[in-house]
Amino acid sequence: MSTEKTAITPTRAQDFPEWYQQVIKAADMAENSETRGCMVIKPWGYGIWELIQQQLDRKFKATGHQNAYFPLLIPLSYLEKEAEHAEGFATECAVVTHHRLETVKDPVTGKTKMIPTGELAEPYVIRPTSETIIGAAFARWIESYRDLPLLINQWANVMRWEMRPRLFLRTAEFLWQEGHTAHETQEEAMVETRLIHGVYEEFLRDHLAIPVIPGEKTENERFPGADMTLTVEAMVQDKKAIQAGTSHYLGQNFSKAQNIAFTGRDGTVQLAHTTSWGVSTRMIGTLIMAHADDDGLILPPRVATQQIVITPITPKDDTREAVIASCHALAETLRHQVYRGDPLRVHVDTRDISGGVKKWEWIKKGVPIRIEIGPRDIETRKVCVQRRDQAVTEKDFPIKDDFIRRAGEILDEIHHNLLNRATEFRNANIQPCSALEDFLSHWTQENPGWLYTPWAGTPEQEDELSKQHKITIRCLPIATASLSKSLTANRSGKCFLTGKETSTFAIWGRSY
Predict the structure, then answer these.
(1) Is 27 within 8 Å of 364 (Cβ atoms)?
(2) How far is CA 358 from CA 216, 348, 484, in A?
(3) Is residue 173 a contact partner of residue 157, using CB atoms and an 8 Å limit?
(4) pLDDT, tens digit, for every residue of 33-75?
(5) Which helix (H) or strand (E) holds 350?
(6) What is the DSSP letter of 219?
(7) What is the CATH number of domain 301-413?
(8) For the chain, which residues make up each domain, given as ranges?
Protein backbone atom coordinates (compact mmCIF):
# COMPACT_ATOMS: atom_id res chain seq x y z
CA MET A 1 0.00 0.00 0.00
CA SER A 2 1.28 3.46 -0.87
CA THR A 3 2.59 5.58 2.02
CA GLU A 4 2.28 8.83 0.06
CA LYS A 5 0.43 11.44 2.09
CA THR A 6 -2.88 12.58 0.62
CA ALA A 7 -5.33 15.33 1.52
CA ILE A 8 -8.21 12.84 1.76
CA THR A 9 -8.14 9.87 4.10
CA PRO A 10 -9.02 7.13 3.67
CA THR A 11 -7.96 6.90 0.03
CA ARG A 12 -10.12 5.45 -2.75
CA ALA A 13 -8.24 2.16 -2.55
CA GLN A 14 -8.63 1.90 1.22
CA ASP A 15 -12.35 2.65 1.62
CA PHE A 16 -14.16 4.05 -1.40
CA PRO A 17 -17.52 4.85 0.29
CA GLU A 18 -15.84 6.72 3.16
CA TRP A 19 -13.44 8.45 0.74
CA TYR A 20 -16.51 9.74 -1.13
CA GLN A 21 -17.99 11.22 2.05
CA GLN A 22 -14.67 12.83 2.96
CA VAL A 23 -14.29 14.44 -0.49
CA ILE A 24 -17.69 16.10 -0.02
CA LYS A 25 -16.72 17.26 3.48
CA ALA A 26 -13.29 18.56 2.41
CA ALA A 27 -14.83 20.50 -0.50
CA ASP A 28 -17.50 21.90 1.84
CA MET A 29 -20.26 20.83 -0.58
CA ALA A 30 -22.99 19.39 1.63
CA GLU A 31 -23.77 17.85 5.00
CA ASN A 32 -26.35 15.57 6.53
CA SER A 33 -29.42 17.34 7.90
CA GLU A 34 -31.26 16.93 11.17
CA THR A 35 -34.10 15.60 8.99
CA ARG A 36 -33.31 11.94 8.56
CA GLY A 37 -32.12 11.01 5.09
CA CYS A 38 -31.99 14.62 3.87
CA MET A 39 -29.04 16.89 3.16
CA VAL A 40 -28.08 20.53 3.36
CA ILE A 41 -26.43 21.56 0.09
CA LYS A 42 -23.85 24.22 0.91
CA PRO A 43 -22.94 27.09 -1.46
CA TRP A 44 -20.04 25.32 -3.21
CA GLY A 45 -22.17 22.27 -3.95
CA TYR A 46 -25.29 24.27 -4.79
CA GLY A 47 -23.26 26.41 -7.18
CA ILE A 48 -22.49 23.26 -9.18
CA TRP A 49 -26.20 22.38 -9.25
CA GLU A 50 -27.11 25.91 -10.38
CA LEU A 51 -24.70 25.61 -13.32
CA ILE A 52 -26.07 22.18 -14.26
CA GLN A 53 -29.59 23.60 -14.04
CA GLN A 54 -28.82 26.71 -16.11
CA GLN A 55 -27.01 24.83 -18.85
CA LEU A 56 -29.55 22.01 -19.12
CA ASP A 57 -32.42 24.51 -19.01
CA ARG A 58 -31.01 26.26 -22.07
CA LYS A 59 -30.94 22.95 -23.92
CA PHE A 60 -34.56 22.16 -22.99
CA LYS A 61 -35.78 25.57 -24.09
CA ALA A 62 -33.82 25.31 -27.34
CA THR A 63 -35.84 22.17 -28.13
CA GLY A 64 -39.18 23.88 -27.50
CA HIS A 65 -39.88 23.02 -23.87
CA GLN A 66 -41.35 25.45 -21.33
CA ASN A 67 -40.99 25.47 -17.55
CA ALA A 68 -43.98 25.21 -15.21
CA TYR A 69 -44.56 24.28 -11.59
CA PHE A 70 -46.99 21.77 -10.04
CA PRO A 71 -48.06 20.97 -6.45
CA LEU A 72 -45.75 19.19 -4.03
CA LEU A 73 -48.72 17.30 -2.54
CA ILE A 74 -50.49 14.72 -4.70
CA PRO A 75 -53.92 13.37 -3.70
CA LEU A 76 -53.69 9.67 -2.93
CA SER A 77 -56.58 9.01 -5.31
CA TYR A 78 -54.46 10.25 -8.23
CA LEU A 79 -51.86 7.57 -7.57
CA GLU A 80 -54.58 4.95 -7.19
CA LYS A 81 -55.69 5.65 -10.78
CA GLU A 82 -52.35 4.34 -12.09
CA ALA A 83 -51.84 1.11 -10.15
CA GLU A 84 -48.59 -0.10 -11.77
CA HIS A 85 -46.96 3.30 -11.41
CA ALA A 86 -48.06 3.76 -7.79
CA GLU A 87 -46.93 0.27 -6.82
CA GLY A 88 -43.44 1.04 -8.11
CA PHE A 89 -43.07 3.89 -5.59
CA ALA A 90 -45.37 2.70 -2.79
CA THR A 91 -42.64 1.69 -0.34
CA GLU A 92 -40.86 5.06 -0.78
CA CYS A 93 -43.84 7.38 -0.33
CA ALA A 94 -44.13 9.92 2.48
CA VAL A 95 -47.78 10.59 3.30
CA VAL A 96 -49.43 13.72 4.81
CA THR A 97 -52.48 12.78 6.88
CA HIS A 98 -53.21 15.84 9.08
CA HIS A 99 -53.50 19.59 8.53
CA ARG A 100 -53.09 21.05 12.02
CA LEU A 101 -50.88 20.92 15.14
CA GLU A 102 -52.16 21.44 18.67
CA THR A 103 -50.15 22.19 21.80
CA VAL A 104 -50.62 19.90 24.83
CA LYS A 105 -48.78 19.51 28.11
CA ASP A 106 -47.47 16.15 29.21
CA PRO A 107 -49.17 15.57 32.60
CA VAL A 108 -46.13 13.67 33.92
CA THR A 109 -43.16 15.77 32.71
CA GLY A 110 -44.96 19.08 32.25
CA LYS A 111 -43.26 19.50 28.87
CA THR A 112 -45.14 21.00 25.96
CA LYS A 113 -45.74 18.77 22.95
CA MET A 114 -47.15 19.34 19.48
CA ILE A 115 -49.54 16.69 18.24
CA PRO A 116 -51.15 16.37 14.79
CA THR A 117 -54.91 16.91 14.69
CA GLY A 118 -57.43 17.63 11.99
CA GLU A 119 -57.21 14.43 9.95
CA LEU A 120 -57.49 15.04 6.21
CA ALA A 121 -60.47 13.62 4.36
CA GLU A 122 -57.97 12.31 1.79
CA PRO A 123 -54.24 11.81 2.45
CA TYR A 124 -51.65 13.49 0.26
CA VAL A 125 -48.43 11.91 -0.98
CA ILE A 126 -45.34 14.15 -1.13
CA ARG A 127 -44.41 13.81 -4.79
CA PRO A 128 -42.03 10.92 -5.54
CA THR A 129 -42.51 11.95 -9.20
CA SER A 130 -45.28 13.96 -10.85
CA GLU A 131 -46.79 11.92 -13.70
CA THR A 132 -50.20 11.73 -12.03
CA ILE A 133 -50.62 15.37 -10.96
CA ILE A 134 -49.22 16.70 -14.24
CA GLY A 135 -51.35 14.23 -16.17
CA ALA A 136 -54.44 15.69 -14.47
CA ALA A 137 -53.37 19.17 -15.66
CA PHE A 138 -52.71 17.89 -19.18
CA ALA A 139 -56.24 16.45 -19.24
CA ARG A 140 -57.59 19.97 -18.55
CA TRP A 141 -55.27 21.75 -20.98
CA ILE A 142 -55.58 19.48 -24.02
CA GLU A 143 -58.76 19.49 -26.10
CA SER A 144 -57.67 19.19 -29.72
CA TYR A 145 -54.75 17.91 -31.78
CA ARG A 146 -53.97 21.60 -32.23
CA ASP A 147 -52.91 21.72 -28.55
CA LEU A 148 -50.20 19.14 -29.23
CA PRO A 149 -47.37 18.60 -28.71
CA LEU A 150 -47.39 19.90 -25.15
CA LEU A 151 -43.79 20.15 -23.92
CA ILE A 152 -43.41 20.93 -20.20
CA ASN A 153 -40.48 20.78 -17.78
CA GLN A 154 -40.44 21.28 -14.02
CA TRP A 155 -37.46 22.06 -11.75
CA ALA A 156 -38.48 20.82 -8.32
CA ASN A 157 -37.74 18.75 -5.23
CA VAL A 158 -39.13 15.26 -4.71
CA MET A 159 -39.20 12.81 -1.82
CA ARG A 160 -38.59 9.08 -1.82
CA TRP A 161 -38.14 7.61 1.64
CA GLU A 162 -34.56 6.33 1.49
CA MET A 163 -33.44 3.69 3.98
CA ARG A 164 -29.69 3.96 3.27
CA PRO A 165 -29.00 7.61 2.41
CA ARG A 166 -25.77 8.81 0.82
CA LEU A 167 -25.12 12.51 0.07
CA PHE A 168 -26.10 13.44 -3.50
CA LEU A 169 -26.50 9.81 -4.62
CA ARG A 170 -29.45 8.74 -2.48
CA THR A 171 -31.30 11.11 -0.17
CA ALA A 172 -34.92 11.13 0.90
CA GLU A 173 -35.39 14.61 -0.60
CA PHE A 174 -33.46 15.58 -3.70
CA LEU A 175 -33.56 18.18 -6.47
CA TRP A 176 -34.23 17.38 -10.09
CA GLN A 177 -35.93 18.31 -13.30
CA GLU A 178 -38.78 16.27 -14.67
CA GLY A 179 -39.98 16.71 -18.21
CA HIS A 180 -43.51 15.70 -19.19
CA THR A 181 -44.83 15.82 -22.74
CA ALA A 182 -47.96 14.81 -24.63
CA HIS A 183 -48.08 13.97 -28.35
CA GLU A 184 -50.54 13.19 -31.08
CA THR A 185 -48.86 9.97 -32.24
CA GLN A 186 -46.64 7.21 -30.95
CA GLU A 187 -43.99 8.14 -33.50
CA GLU A 188 -43.79 11.74 -32.25
CA ALA A 189 -43.57 10.60 -28.62
CA MET A 190 -40.78 8.15 -29.46
CA VAL A 191 -38.85 10.91 -31.25
CA GLU A 192 -39.19 13.04 -28.10
CA THR A 193 -38.01 10.20 -25.84
CA ARG A 194 -34.92 9.65 -27.97
CA LEU A 195 -34.27 13.38 -28.34
CA ILE A 196 -33.99 13.89 -24.58
CA HIS A 197 -31.98 10.69 -24.21
CA GLY A 198 -29.48 12.24 -26.62
CA VAL A 199 -29.51 15.55 -24.73
CA TYR A 200 -28.56 13.73 -21.52
CA GLU A 201 -25.76 11.76 -23.19
CA GLU A 202 -24.36 14.92 -24.75
CA PHE A 203 -24.63 16.92 -21.52
CA LEU A 204 -22.82 14.34 -19.43
CA ARG A 205 -20.06 14.05 -22.02
CA ASP A 206 -19.66 17.71 -23.04
CA HIS A 207 -20.38 19.45 -19.71
CA LEU A 208 -19.46 16.93 -16.99
CA ALA A 209 -16.71 15.06 -18.89
CA ILE A 210 -18.45 11.76 -18.03
CA PRO A 211 -18.66 9.12 -20.78
CA VAL A 212 -21.93 7.20 -20.61
CA ILE A 213 -23.39 4.19 -22.35
CA PRO A 214 -26.81 4.99 -23.81
CA GLY A 215 -29.19 2.08 -23.94
CA GLU A 216 -32.61 0.67 -23.16
CA LYS A 217 -33.69 -0.78 -19.83
CA THR A 218 -35.05 -4.32 -19.74
CA GLU A 219 -38.66 -4.95 -18.81
CA ASN A 220 -37.57 -5.68 -15.21
CA GLU A 221 -35.76 -2.35 -14.90
CA ARG A 222 -38.23 -0.03 -16.65
CA PHE A 223 -39.79 2.98 -14.98
CA PRO A 224 -43.11 1.88 -13.40
CA GLY A 225 -45.89 2.31 -15.98
CA ALA A 226 -43.58 2.93 -18.96
CA ASP A 227 -43.58 1.07 -22.27
CA MET A 228 -39.90 1.88 -22.80
CA THR A 229 -37.14 3.40 -20.66
CA LEU A 230 -33.91 4.73 -22.15
CA THR A 231 -30.97 5.30 -19.84
CA VAL A 232 -27.44 6.69 -19.76
CA GLU A 233 -25.15 4.59 -17.57
CA ALA A 234 -21.88 5.86 -16.09
CA MET A 235 -19.03 3.87 -14.54
CA VAL A 236 -17.35 5.42 -11.51
CA GLN A 237 -13.94 4.69 -10.03
CA ASP A 238 -14.93 1.66 -7.95
CA LYS A 239 -16.28 0.16 -11.21
CA LYS A 240 -19.91 0.38 -10.14
CA ALA A 241 -22.65 1.82 -12.33
CA ILE A 242 -24.74 4.92 -11.79
CA GLN A 243 -27.93 5.53 -13.73
CA ALA A 244 -27.23 9.15 -14.63
CA GLY A 245 -30.49 9.99 -16.44
CA THR A 246 -33.58 8.33 -17.91
CA SER A 247 -36.12 9.10 -20.62
CA HIS A 248 -39.42 7.19 -20.72
CA TYR A 249 -42.00 6.53 -23.41
CA LEU A 250 -45.18 6.04 -21.38
CA GLY A 251 -47.40 5.00 -24.29
CA GLN A 252 -51.06 5.76 -23.55
CA ASN A 253 -50.95 4.23 -20.05
CA PHE A 254 -51.17 7.49 -18.12
CA SER A 255 -53.54 9.00 -20.67
CA LYS A 256 -56.00 6.18 -19.99
CA ALA A 257 -55.72 6.66 -16.23
CA GLN A 258 -55.86 10.49 -16.36
CA ASN A 259 -58.13 10.85 -19.42
CA ILE A 260 -55.61 12.86 -21.44
CA ALA A 261 -57.80 12.85 -24.53
CA PHE A 262 -58.13 15.09 -27.59
CA THR A 263 -60.21 15.46 -30.71
CA GLY A 264 -58.10 14.17 -33.58
CA ARG A 265 -57.79 15.38 -37.15
CA ASP A 266 -60.56 12.97 -38.19
CA GLY A 267 -62.92 14.22 -35.47
CA THR A 268 -62.59 11.15 -33.24
CA VAL A 269 -61.58 11.28 -29.58
CA GLN A 270 -58.08 9.87 -29.10
CA LEU A 271 -55.67 9.35 -26.21
CA ALA A 272 -52.37 11.23 -26.13
CA HIS A 273 -49.02 9.48 -26.15
CA THR A 274 -46.92 10.79 -23.24
CA THR A 275 -43.30 10.85 -22.14
CA SER A 276 -41.40 11.74 -18.98
CA TRP A 277 -37.69 12.20 -18.33
CA GLY A 278 -35.39 13.48 -15.63
CA VAL A 279 -31.97 13.97 -14.05
CA SER A 280 -31.22 14.96 -10.48
CA THR A 281 -28.56 16.05 -7.98
CA ARG A 282 -27.34 12.46 -8.38
CA MET A 283 -25.35 13.95 -11.28
CA ILE A 284 -23.14 15.68 -8.71
CA GLY A 285 -22.50 12.40 -6.91
CA THR A 286 -21.64 10.79 -10.25
CA LEU A 287 -19.25 13.63 -11.04
CA ILE A 288 -17.46 13.23 -7.68
CA MET A 289 -17.10 9.46 -8.01
CA ALA A 290 -15.97 9.72 -11.65
CA HIS A 291 -13.31 12.43 -11.34
CA ALA A 292 -12.19 13.14 -7.75
CA ASP A 293 -8.86 11.83 -6.48
CA ASP A 294 -7.16 11.29 -3.13
CA ASP A 295 -6.54 15.04 -2.80
CA GLY A 296 -10.21 15.97 -3.22
CA LEU A 297 -12.72 17.10 -5.79
CA ILE A 298 -11.85 17.67 -9.46
CA LEU A 299 -14.41 19.80 -11.30
CA PRO A 300 -14.96 19.83 -15.07
CA PRO A 301 -14.61 23.50 -16.07
CA ARG A 302 -18.15 24.07 -17.38
CA VAL A 303 -19.74 23.26 -14.01
CA ALA A 304 -16.99 24.57 -11.73
CA THR A 305 -18.38 27.09 -9.25
CA GLN A 306 -15.16 29.04 -9.81
CA GLN A 307 -13.05 28.15 -12.86
CA ILE A 308 -9.96 30.15 -11.91
CA VAL A 309 -8.81 31.18 -8.43
CA ILE A 310 -6.02 33.76 -8.12
CA THR A 311 -4.01 33.87 -4.91
CA PRO A 312 -1.79 36.88 -4.14
CA ILE A 313 1.57 35.96 -2.61
CA THR A 314 2.03 39.01 -0.38
CA PRO A 315 5.12 39.42 1.79
CA LYS A 316 4.73 41.90 4.61
CA ASP A 317 6.30 44.82 2.73
CA ASP A 318 5.38 47.70 0.46
CA THR A 319 4.65 45.37 -2.49
CA ARG A 320 1.46 43.96 -0.94
CA GLU A 321 -0.94 46.49 -2.44
CA ALA A 322 0.65 46.24 -5.88
CA VAL A 323 0.37 42.43 -5.87
CA ILE A 324 -3.29 42.49 -4.85
CA ALA A 325 -4.04 45.16 -7.45
CA SER A 326 -2.33 43.04 -10.12
CA CYS A 327 -4.45 40.01 -9.13
CA HIS A 328 -7.70 41.99 -9.36
CA ALA A 329 -6.65 43.48 -12.72
CA LEU A 330 -5.98 39.98 -14.12
CA ALA A 331 -9.29 38.70 -12.75
CA GLU A 332 -11.20 41.57 -14.35
CA THR A 333 -9.53 40.97 -17.71
CA LEU A 334 -10.36 37.25 -17.55
CA ARG A 335 -13.99 37.91 -16.58
CA HIS A 336 -14.46 39.72 -19.88
CA GLN A 337 -13.66 36.49 -21.73
CA VAL A 338 -16.37 34.02 -22.67
CA TYR A 339 -15.85 30.29 -22.29
CA ARG A 340 -18.43 27.96 -23.84
CA GLY A 341 -21.10 30.64 -23.86
CA ASP A 342 -20.57 32.04 -20.34
CA PRO A 343 -18.18 34.64 -18.86
CA LEU A 344 -15.19 33.11 -17.08
CA ARG A 345 -15.80 32.66 -13.36
CA VAL A 346 -12.75 34.05 -11.57
CA HIS A 347 -12.16 34.59 -7.84
CA VAL A 348 -9.33 36.46 -6.07
CA ASP A 349 -8.58 35.00 -2.63
CA THR A 350 -7.37 37.88 -0.45
CA ARG A 351 -8.13 36.28 2.92
CA ASP A 352 -5.56 36.86 5.63
CA ILE A 353 -4.48 33.23 5.97
CA SER A 354 -1.37 31.39 4.83
CA GLY A 355 -0.81 30.63 1.17
CA GLY A 356 -0.45 26.91 1.91
CA VAL A 357 -3.87 26.74 3.57
CA LYS A 358 -5.45 28.57 0.63
CA LYS A 359 -3.74 26.31 -1.90
CA TRP A 360 -5.01 23.10 -0.30
CA GLU A 361 -8.49 24.47 0.21
CA TRP A 362 -8.84 25.17 -3.52
CA ILE A 363 -7.27 21.83 -4.44
CA LYS A 364 -9.85 20.03 -2.29
CA LYS A 365 -12.64 22.13 -3.82
CA GLY A 366 -11.53 21.01 -7.29
CA VAL A 367 -10.98 24.41 -8.94
CA PRO A 368 -9.71 23.73 -12.50
CA ILE A 369 -6.99 26.44 -12.54
CA ARG A 370 -5.12 28.01 -9.64
CA ILE A 371 -2.89 31.05 -10.18
CA GLU A 372 -0.35 32.54 -7.81
CA ILE A 373 1.09 36.04 -8.27
CA GLY A 374 3.91 37.51 -6.19
CA PRO A 375 6.18 40.59 -6.42
CA ARG A 376 8.67 38.85 -8.74
CA ASP A 377 5.84 37.80 -11.09
CA ILE A 378 4.85 41.44 -11.52
CA GLU A 379 8.40 42.27 -12.61
CA THR A 380 8.67 39.32 -15.04
CA ARG A 381 5.03 39.61 -16.18
CA LYS A 382 4.65 35.89 -15.55
CA VAL A 383 2.08 33.93 -13.52
CA CYS A 384 2.33 30.61 -11.71
CA VAL A 385 -0.37 28.31 -13.13
CA GLN A 386 -1.45 24.99 -11.58
CA ARG A 387 -4.10 22.70 -13.09
CA ARG A 388 -6.30 20.39 -11.03
CA ASP A 389 -6.12 17.63 -13.65
CA GLN A 390 -2.34 17.44 -13.10
CA ALA A 391 -0.21 16.53 -10.09
CA VAL A 392 -0.52 19.08 -7.28
CA THR A 393 3.24 19.72 -7.46
CA GLU A 394 3.21 20.52 -11.19
CA LYS A 395 3.51 24.20 -12.13
CA ASP A 396 3.78 26.26 -15.29
CA PHE A 397 5.05 29.85 -15.57
CA PRO A 398 3.61 31.40 -18.74
CA ILE A 399 3.79 35.07 -19.66
CA LYS A 400 0.61 36.64 -18.25
CA ASP A 401 -0.63 37.83 -21.66
CA ASP A 402 -0.12 34.34 -23.11
CA PHE A 403 -2.17 32.82 -20.28
CA ILE A 404 -4.97 35.36 -20.83
CA ARG A 405 -5.03 34.45 -24.52
CA ARG A 406 -5.05 30.70 -23.84
CA ALA A 407 -7.29 30.50 -20.74
CA GLY A 408 -10.24 29.00 -22.61
CA GLU A 409 -7.99 26.53 -24.45
CA ILE A 410 -6.50 25.36 -21.14
CA LEU A 411 -9.97 24.81 -19.69
CA ASP A 412 -10.86 22.74 -22.76
CA GLU A 413 -7.66 20.72 -22.30
CA ILE A 414 -8.68 20.00 -18.71
CA HIS A 415 -12.15 18.89 -19.81
CA HIS A 416 -10.84 16.55 -22.51
CA ASN A 417 -8.19 15.16 -20.19
CA LEU A 418 -10.85 14.25 -17.61
CA LEU A 419 -13.12 12.78 -20.29
CA ASN A 420 -10.34 10.70 -21.86
CA ARG A 421 -9.19 9.46 -18.46
CA ALA A 422 -12.72 8.36 -17.51
CA THR A 423 -13.33 6.77 -20.91
CA GLU A 424 -10.11 4.74 -20.80
CA PHE A 425 -10.90 3.57 -17.27
CA ARG A 426 -14.42 2.52 -18.23
CA ASN A 427 -13.39 0.69 -21.39
CA ALA A 428 -10.63 -1.16 -19.52
CA ASN A 429 -13.21 -2.43 -17.01
CA ILE A 430 -15.89 -3.80 -19.35
CA GLN A 431 -15.20 -7.39 -20.28
CA PRO A 432 -16.90 -9.48 -22.99
CA CYS A 433 -18.42 -12.71 -21.73
CA SER A 434 -20.14 -15.55 -23.57
CA ALA A 435 -19.78 -18.49 -21.13
CA LEU A 436 -21.83 -19.13 -18.00
CA GLU A 437 -18.78 -20.29 -16.04
CA ASP A 438 -16.98 -17.01 -16.77
CA PHE A 439 -20.10 -15.03 -15.90
CA LEU A 440 -20.46 -16.69 -12.51
CA SER A 441 -16.77 -16.43 -11.57
CA HIS A 442 -16.63 -12.74 -12.54
CA TRP A 443 -18.93 -11.70 -9.69
CA THR A 444 -16.78 -13.38 -7.02
CA GLN A 445 -14.20 -10.58 -7.42
CA GLU A 446 -14.17 -7.66 -4.99
CA ASN A 447 -14.50 -4.90 -7.64
CA PRO A 448 -15.51 -6.84 -10.73
CA GLY A 449 -16.40 -4.14 -13.23
CA TRP A 450 -19.01 -4.75 -15.94
CA LEU A 451 -19.74 -7.62 -18.30
CA TYR A 452 -20.93 -7.33 -21.91
CA THR A 453 -22.87 -10.43 -22.91
CA PRO A 454 -25.16 -11.78 -25.62
CA TRP A 455 -28.56 -12.09 -23.94
CA ALA A 456 -31.70 -14.07 -24.75
CA GLY A 457 -32.93 -14.86 -21.26
CA THR A 458 -36.39 -14.32 -19.79
CA PRO A 459 -37.30 -11.64 -17.24
CA GLU A 460 -37.52 -14.42 -14.65
CA GLN A 461 -34.01 -15.65 -15.45
CA GLU A 462 -32.71 -12.08 -15.34
CA ASP A 463 -34.32 -11.58 -11.93
CA GLU A 464 -32.79 -14.78 -10.56
CA LEU A 465 -29.28 -13.83 -11.70
CA SER A 466 -29.72 -10.31 -10.35
CA LYS A 467 -30.69 -11.49 -6.87
CA GLN A 468 -28.06 -14.23 -6.78
CA HIS A 469 -25.13 -11.94 -7.59
CA LYS A 470 -26.49 -8.52 -6.50
CA ILE A 471 -26.25 -7.22 -10.06
CA THR A 472 -28.59 -5.82 -12.70
CA ILE A 473 -28.66 -5.43 -16.43
CA ARG A 474 -27.70 -1.78 -16.60
CA CYS A 475 -28.91 -1.47 -20.19
CA LEU A 476 -29.16 -3.06 -23.59
CA PRO A 477 -26.67 -0.76 -25.33
CA ILE A 478 -27.70 1.16 -28.41
CA ALA A 479 -25.48 0.29 -31.39
CA THR A 480 -23.97 3.79 -31.49
CA ALA A 481 -22.84 3.61 -27.86
CA SER A 482 -19.26 4.71 -27.26
CA LEU A 483 -17.99 1.24 -26.43
CA SER A 484 -14.59 -0.03 -27.52
CA LYS A 485 -14.49 -1.66 -30.96
CA SER A 486 -13.25 -4.92 -29.43
CA LEU A 487 -16.58 -5.25 -27.61
CA THR A 488 -18.90 -4.28 -30.45
CA ALA A 489 -17.12 -6.10 -33.28
CA ASN A 490 -19.65 -8.94 -33.07
CA ARG A 491 -23.31 -7.96 -33.23
CA SER A 492 -24.64 -11.47 -32.64
CA GLY A 493 -23.74 -14.51 -30.58
CA LYS A 494 -25.07 -17.23 -28.33
CA CYS A 495 -26.60 -16.24 -25.01
CA PHE A 496 -24.28 -17.35 -22.18
CA LEU A 497 -27.28 -18.69 -20.22
CA THR A 498 -29.72 -20.17 -22.75
CA GLY A 499 -27.39 -20.92 -25.65
CA LYS A 500 -29.82 -19.25 -28.05
CA GLU A 501 -28.52 -17.19 -30.97
CA THR A 502 -29.23 -13.50 -30.35
CA SER A 503 -28.38 -10.04 -31.62
CA THR A 504 -29.25 -8.49 -28.23
CA PHE A 505 -26.37 -7.61 -25.91
CA ALA A 506 -26.55 -6.60 -22.25
CA ILE A 507 -24.33 -4.65 -19.88
CA TRP A 508 -24.30 -6.23 -16.39
CA GLY A 509 -22.93 -4.56 -13.30
CA ARG A 510 -23.27 -3.63 -9.65
CA SER A 511 -24.68 -0.18 -9.05
CA TYR A 512 -25.45 2.64 -6.65
Answers:
(1) yes
(2) 46, 11, 41
(3) yes
(4) 999 999 999 999 999 999 999 999 999 999 999 999 999 999 9
(5) none
(6) G
(7) 3.40.50.800
(8) 16-291, 301-413, 430-509
